[in-house]
Amino acid sequence: MPTIADSKLAFATVPHPAPTSASVREAVLAAPGFGTSFSDHMISIDWTEGQGWHNATLGPRGPIALDPAAAVLHYAQEIFEGLKAYAQAAPDGGTAGIALFRPEANAARFNASARRLAMPELPEALFVESVKRLVMADRDWLPGGEGASLYLRPFMIATEAFLGVRPAKAYKFLVIASPAGNYFKSGAPAVSIWVSPYTRAAPGGTGAAKCGGNYAASLVPQGEAMARGHDQVVFLDAAEHKWIEELGGMNLFFVFADGSMVTPALTGTILPGITRDSLLTLARDEGLTVREERYSIDQWREDAASGRLVETFACGTAAVVTPVGRVCSHDGEFTVGSGGPGQITQRLKERLVAIQRGAAPDPHGWVTRLA
Ligand SMILES: *Cc1c(COP(=O)(O)O)cnc(C)c1O
Predict the structure, then answer these.
(1) Which of 32, 267, 348, 359 might form a disulfide with 181, Cβ 3.0–4.6 angstroms?
(2) Whose CA is nearest to atom 5 of ligand 1?
(3) Given this structure, which CATH class describes domain 5-180?
(4) Distance of alpha carbon 346 from alpha carbon 267, whole angstroms
């Protein structure tokens, strides 16, 4: 098990022998897309039974060698996180400095995922320090422009070469960074979603853990949605196939004409989003009534038709806040509100983004400035 001393691990720093040239990097940053290009460095820390966390390195990003019997390749013992470094707004309208948004929350959730996947926990301070070191080393990879950020992907894999089924005895924690523009390629004002006949997570399963296996299982449903011309899938609960859970990688909020909001409660089958939690807090700060409770697909359709429901949005680190417009299923389709971004959706998004960009006060202490 990790000890306090783990968080005082010394990092070895190995600079990239041939970093990307400024001109190539500038070309990448001019149109970063999402998840397709990567910075020059990465963090790597090993864990073995007996030694615990050791061998912390900030080094050149590159392929990692794995034994073909490495447990992650067979039984998917893998967890990950996603967070962003944001350029900070300067008073003159330009940018000055870089900040992370609630990295301790990602560290805590990473450990919750580790416990569910029978993996060793990483001291939270070591998680945060790893992310900070990578951002500072590769700060030139932070794109400028509206909605741009440096997306950080901490993850852990089971590296032990062993085909028996039990928790591995060796792991690797890595952090890589990817310059990110706007998440949805279409840049559409509202996404169209498909109500999936598949299930994402069942009670007692891994739905609340951020693990690759959940995503592997969501690819066929997501592919079907796209084949039907939609941007995303929405999953219903596994038991009754009636209660709305979340999208493949984003939580949902429903906004009513009376100004109140609902988001599905964290019942164990839903990923506890940090964006979700932040928006709950910001909405309550504004005096909005927000209920965490179940909401059914039939009620959603009925409320959209009657006008009781006026907005729906999805939220997550990658795409921030995204309005949901058209909803389709085997039973037919309906449109939420005007089909575009609603007022409350827009206001909450602006408030969140302003805090993340350092353009508004940070009353909850969510922003960690790095420089
Ligand atoms: C990561 C993730 C989210 C969003 O979480 P954030 O912390 O807000 O980025 C929502 N659903 C799933 C399935 C996820 O993996």
Answers:
(1) 32
(2) 273
(3) alpha beta
(4) 27
Architecture of domain 191-356: Alpha-Beta Barrel (3.20)
CB of 246 sitting under 6 A from ligand 1? yes
Query: Nearest Cα to 250, choosing from 327, 329, 313?
Result: 313
Q: How far is the CA of 140 from the centre of ligand 1 (A)?
A: 27
pLDDT at 144 over 90: no
Closest CA relative to residue 152, chosen from 56, 14, 41: 41
Q: Whose CA is nearest to atom 10 of ligand 1?
A: 250
> Which single residue is written with the structure tokens 């350029």?
87
Query: pLDDT tens, 297-320?
Result: 999 999 999 999 999 999 999 889
Map out the domains of the chain as residue ranges: 5-180, 191-356
CA angle 329, 229, 38 (to 5 degrees): 120
Atom of ligand 1 minimally distant from the CA of 207: 13
CA–CA distance, 109 with 311 (Å, rounded to integer): 29
Partners of 211 in beta bridges = 79
Contact (Cβ atoms closer than 8 angstroms) between residue 173 and residue 113: no
φ, ψ of residue 148 to 5 degrees: the values are -90, 150
Ligand 1 pocket, residue 271 CB under 6 Å: yes
Determine if ligand 1 sits within 6 Å of the CB of residue 274: yes
Q: Which residues pair with 89 in a beta bridge?
A: 95
CA 318 to ligand 1: nearest atom: 9
* Averaged pLDDT, 135-156: 91
Rounded to the nearest angstrom, the distance between the alpha carbon of 325 and the centre of ligand 1 is: 20
Our answer on whether the CB atom of 106 is closer than 6 Å to any ligand 1 atom is no
User: Do the domains spanning 5-180 and 191-356 agree at the CATH topology level?
Assistant: no
Give residue 145's pLDDT band: very low, low, confident or very high (50, 70, 90): confident
36-50, 182-196, 197-211, 340-354, range with the lowest pLDDT: 182-196
Report CA(335)–ligand 1 centroid distance (Å).
Answer: 24
The 10s digit of each residue's pLDDT in 110-123 is 999 999 999 999 99
Could you tell me the end-to-end alpha-carbon distance of the chain, in angstroms, rounded to an integer? 33
